[in-house]
Specification:
The chain is of the alpha/beta class. The protein has a single domain, classed as Rossmann fold. The protein is built from six helices and five strands. It has a five-stranded parallel β-sheet, sandwiched between helices. Helix 2 packs across helix 6 and helix 3 runs parallel beside helix 4. The longest helix is centred in the last third of the chain and has 15 residues. It is globular, with a radius of gyration of 16 Å. 34% of the residues are buried.
Length: 168
């Protein structure tokens, strides 16, 4: 088994998870299965969540669904830094975070500075939070506790919207 993803999560600074998922992800033409339509690049996802257990579950669920999780970070400051160097397509953002920035401030900065949209995943999604988050143009909201199925469904819908498709 190889460690394909050595992302760290905030102050825990260690491998977030072992991801043997992509070891045999060769297009059919390369694997000898014959010609196939071009393989679409997996969306690159940034997780901004300060609860290490939730972040680990989210990372595993998204990787299992075929998404490329580029990092899981615990603070808004780390998210902004990663966005500047890794260029994620989408961020999954909790509203209450460790550090000096909350999730709404982080999402606004990601959108305004890098054009990165988000899905908020939080227990704190009241009307006022949604109003403050509107300028970040969120692609969805997940109310904690949520299932990993609802998470992957929301990310797939967001990916379709970002690609300009209304249907699967």
């Amino acid at each position: 088994m190889s460690r394909e993803n050595e992302n760290t999560l905030g102050p825990w600074r260690g491998p977030l998870s072992w991801l043997p998922y992509g070891q045999s992800r060769l297009p059919a033409a390369e694997s000898g299965a014959g010609p196939q339509a071009p393989v679409q690049r997996a969306e690159r996802i940034l997780i901004v969540e300060d609860d290490v257990l939730i972040a680990t579950q989210v990372e595993a669920a998204l990787a299992d669904a075929g998404f490329d999780v580029i990092a899981a970070v615990a603070t808004g400051e780390e998210a902004i830094a990663i966005a500047g160097t890794q260029a994620p397509d989408l961020a999954i953002v909790d509203i209450r975070l460790a550090g000096n920035r909350n999730g709404i401030e982080t999402a606004l900065e990601l959108f305004q500075s890098h054009g990165i949209r988000c899905i908020f995943a939080s227990a704190f999604a009241d009307r006022e939070a949604r109003r403050r988050a509107e300028p970040a143009a969120p692609l969805g909201w997940l109310q904690k506790p949520y299932t990993m199925t609802s998470l992957t469904d929301a990310v797939q819908a967001a990916a379709r919207e970002m690609r300009g498709k209304d249907r699967p």
